[in-house]
């Protein structure tokens, strides 16, 4: 990754994993306009070129906050027009995150409030530090979740739990997030990043076309009827039959060795 960002810190891990940090620790990694624009640019870029990557890990700088949501200091005094213009960009950013072709795993290292919780719900899956806290507090500010919160959270935890979380605006713990289905695993802060990277390495070691197609089949299939989802699954499956990686996987199994996948 040659591009440098003001609000994001990128680190290539080995050959195929990119660690992305939300990097505004002085503001609890709150999302200002610049961070939204940079996330939008980064994730829209992956739709055009995956740059040899096979897995992404998203976390925040520091041990207190993953992302405290929208930067209300920046928003203070905005006109209605300015607010709507900024939010339209946030919406586009969130759609780019959801549409990312690469597996996107969260390492939620602290508070994930408002937009931070919405981003968490938009990831493929996520692990959290035991000190992490989550909330969608928008109704306490005269607005409502508008970056996928009412949709992705409900899909993760169910309609009734999502209504309780969103309509009360009350925070909940990492363990509750895990019990309810928003988070896959809770870990001590000191173990969080390495455990998440270990999972990313496992994902990155699998056939990349297979991983990307399986991700799309799961996500898009859930938006369809079962019959349509099954048909879409087979379309995704057939994409792999002629790949070199499919042949390599079968050869490696029979030769009792680890496959070397090249993504072709």
Keywords:
49% helix, alpha/beta, six-stranded mixed β-sheet, 16% strand, Lyase 2-enoyl-coa Hydratase, Chain  A, domain 2, four-stranded mixed β-sheet
What does this structure look like?
- This protein has 264 residues and is of the alpha/beta class.
- The protein has 2 domains: 8-204, 2-enoyl-CoA Hydratase, Chain A, domain 1, CATH 3.90.226.10; 208-254, Lyase 2-enoyl-coa Hydratase, Chain  A, domain 2 (Orthogonal Bundle).
- 49% of the residues lie in helices and 16% in strands.
- It contains 11 helices and 10 strands.
- It has helices at residues 33-48, 72-75, 80-98, 115-122, 149-157, 159-168, 174-180, 189-204, 208-221, 226-241, 244-254, and strands at residues 8-13, 17-22, 55-60, 65-67, 104-108, 111-113, 125-129, 133-135, 172-173, 185-187.
- The strands form 2 sheets. The chain has a 6-stranded mixed beta sheet, sandwiched between helices. It has a 4-stranded mixed beta sheet with strand order 4-6-8-9.
- Helix 1 packs parallel to helix 3 and helix 4 (115-122) packs across helix 5 (149-157).
- The longest helix is centred in the middle third of the chain and has 19 residues, at 80-98.
- It is globular, with a radius of gyration of 19 Å.
- The model has no long low-confidence stretch (mean pLDDT 95).
């Amino acid at each position: 990754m040659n591009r440098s960002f003001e609000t994001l810190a990128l680190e290539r891990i080995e050959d195929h994993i990119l660690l992305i940090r939300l990097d505004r620790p002085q503001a609890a990694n709150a999302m200002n306009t610049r961070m939204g624009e940079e996330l939008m640019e980064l994730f829209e870029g992956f739709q055009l070129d995956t740059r040899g990557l096979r897995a992404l890990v998203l976390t925040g700088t520091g041990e207190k906050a993953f992302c405290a949501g929208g930067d209300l200091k920046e928003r203070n005094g905005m006109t209605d027009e300015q607010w709507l213009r900024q939010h339209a960009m946030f919406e586009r950013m969130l759609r780019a995150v959801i549409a990312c072709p690469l597996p996107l795993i969260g390492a939620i290292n602290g508070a994930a409030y408002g937009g931070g919780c919405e981003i968490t719900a938009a990831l493929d899956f996520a692990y959290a530090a035991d000190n992490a806290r989550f909330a969608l507090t928008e109704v306490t500010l005269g607005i409502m979740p508008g970056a996928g919160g009412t949709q992705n959270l409900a899909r993760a935890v169910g309609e009734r739990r999502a209504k309780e979380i969103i309509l009360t605006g009350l925070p909940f713990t990492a363990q509750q997030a895990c019990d309810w289905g928003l988070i896959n695993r809770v870990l001590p802060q000191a173990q969080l990043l390495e455990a998440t990277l270990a999972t990313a390495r496992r994902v990155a070691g699998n056939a990349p076309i297979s991983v990307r197609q399986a991700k799309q089949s799961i996500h898009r299939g859930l938006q369809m009827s079962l019959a349509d989802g099954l048909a879409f699954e087979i379309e995704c499956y057939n994409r792999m039959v002629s790949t070199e990686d499919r042949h390599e996987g079968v050869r490696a199994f029979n030769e009792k060795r680890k496959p070397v996948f090249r993504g072709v």
